[in-house]
Amino acid sequence: MGAKGKNEGMSKKSEAEWKDLLTPEQFEILRRKGTERPFTGQYYQTDTSGRYLCAGCSQELFTSEEKFDSGCGWPSFYDVKESNAIRTEEDMSFFMRRVEVLCSSCDGHLGHVFEDGPAPTGLRYCINSAAITLDPDEVDP
Ligand SMILES: [Zn+2]
Fold first, then answer.
1. What CA–CA distance (Å, rounded) separates 68 from 113?
2. Which of 29, 44, 86, 131 has the most CB atoms in a 10 Å sphere around its CB?
3. Domains in the chain, start-ordered, CATH in brackets?
4. Which phi and psi (to 5°) does residue 105 adopt?
5. How far is the CA of 7 from the centre of ligand 1 (A)?
6. How many whole angstroms separate alpha carbon 22 and alpha carbon 16?
7. Which residue out of 54, 103, 106, 126 is catalytically annotated?
8. Tens place of pLDDT for every residue, the chain, 141 residues?
């Protein structure tokens, strides 16, 4: 393992471009690996059916089908829409071993995944509300 490994030479957006594109909160989470305070985010209690897109690049990440109420104060999902929509990385910050979840397309930080979720996966994707945007399903009147 290299010490850095962060310069993947991606011809992606610059920090300044991201700052223009994102709200300060989204920037802090997606690009600086921040974490919103629990029970403050937009979606932790949401049960609207729809698709959750990456707030950085609009790639589809999760759906309401896989969302569950974990009580942890962040939107939680037991599975991803398509496994290639995210990538994971070991995160050793704060003296804990956690698994970081990133958008596979824009490399934005989404949250962490823990192994205490419900069946069938046993996983709990603990995602910051500010890292995702809900695209609600059309509802028949
Ligand atoms: Zn993305």
1. 14
2. 131
3. 37-136 (2.170.150.20)
4. -90, -50
5. 17
6. 10
7. 126
8. 434 444 444 558 999 999 999 999 999 999 999 999 999 999 999 999 999 999 999 999 999 999 999 999 999 999 999 999 999 999 998 888 999 999 999 999 999 999 999 999 999 999 999 999 999 998 777
